[in-house]
Amino acid sequence: MSERVLRVNCPTCKDIVEWGEQSPWRPFCCERCKLIDFGEWANERHSIPGAPVDPEQLANLTNRSDEHD
Ligand SMILES: [Zn+2]
Fold first, then answer.
1. 6 near 18, Cβ under 8 Å?
2. What's the CA-to-centroid distance between 47 and ligand 1, angstroms?
3. What angle do CA 43, 30, 10 make, to 5 degrees?
4. Which residues, 6 or more positions from 34, have their beta carbon under 8 angstroms from its beta carbon?
5. 21 touches 29 (CB < 8 A)
6. pLDDT class for 33, splitting at 50, 70, 90?
7. Fold topology of 6-66
8. 54 CA to centre of ligand 1 in angstroms
9. What's the pTM?
10. Residue 65 CA, ligand 1 centroid: distance in Å
11. Most buried in the list 25, 34, 51, 65, measured by CB within 10 Å?
12. Domain boundaries, the chain
């Protein structure tokens, strides 16, 4: 257990990225991939299954289901 290097896949090109100081653009493999991904966000064409849920949205959903009584 001496190696504790976390490896992730670049969201853009799926290349393996080591999570550390040698990867300043993590989780992207390079600046280009980061910019590409940011461009996707700008175009609102980005959707990640299991993306973090906005706490406010979650509260709204909870309130709605409570109205069923
Ligand atoms: Zn990449």
1. yes
2. 17
3. 70
4. 12, 25, 28
5. no
6. very high
7. Erythroid Transcription Factor GATA-1; Chain A (3.30.50)
8. 27
9. 0.53
10. 41
11. 34
12. 6-66
Query: Looking at this protein, which amino acid is placed at residue 46?
Result: H
What one-character-per-residue DSSP string does 1-69 give? -----EEEE-TTT--EEEESTT-TTTTSSSHHHHHHHHHHHHTT----TTPPPPHHHHHHHHHHHHTT-
* Residue that the structure tokens 């550390």 belong to: 20
Tokens of 69: 């009584």
Percent of the chain clearing pLDDT 70 (strictly above):
70
Cα(38) to centroid(ligand 1), Å: 13
